[in-house]
Amino acid sequence: MTVRVGIYPGTFDPITLGHLDIIRRGAKLVDQLIVGVTTNPSKNPMFTPDERMAMVRREMDEQGIENVTVVGFNALLMKFAEAQGASVIIRGLRAVADFEYEYQMAGMNQQLNDRIETVFLMADVSLQPIASKLVKEIALFGGDISGFVTPTVRDEVVARVEQVGRLGDY
Questions:
Q1: Where is the Cytidyltransferase-like domain (predicted)?
Q2: N or C end of the chain: which has fewer CB within 10 A?
Q3: Residue 93 belongs to some domain of the structure
């Protein structure tokens, strides 16, 4: 029996309720879902790769999603997917702008390896506006992020903001 392995890649800086929704739903589509935590220096990460992997692992444990593993990578996605034995890449879509970018990436990835399919999952309507970048920005300006992340992640983000310092006063 062939085990269907899927990859859900991202920076997860921090992991949001939107990410958790895609992970929960993506895990139903495959036998094993690998959450690939990658680096993207252009995104100005708040947390180190190890901190983000620990954060995602903890959230998987708390959510009780058993067929998910968390693996860090710093390579071309398709090379990582091949090394993991994946046949599916799972990507979440929030808006039309996401689709345009993801469509282009899926086409490029297909050119690199046409044996790995990309599956797009639409974000839950209530979660569509959530983006890690915006969560960090809101937190850095002292805003309440509790509607966008779990309480534990909120506490971690708030603690990090206290370390680096808030931005602006009014």
A1: 7-137
A2: C
A3: yes
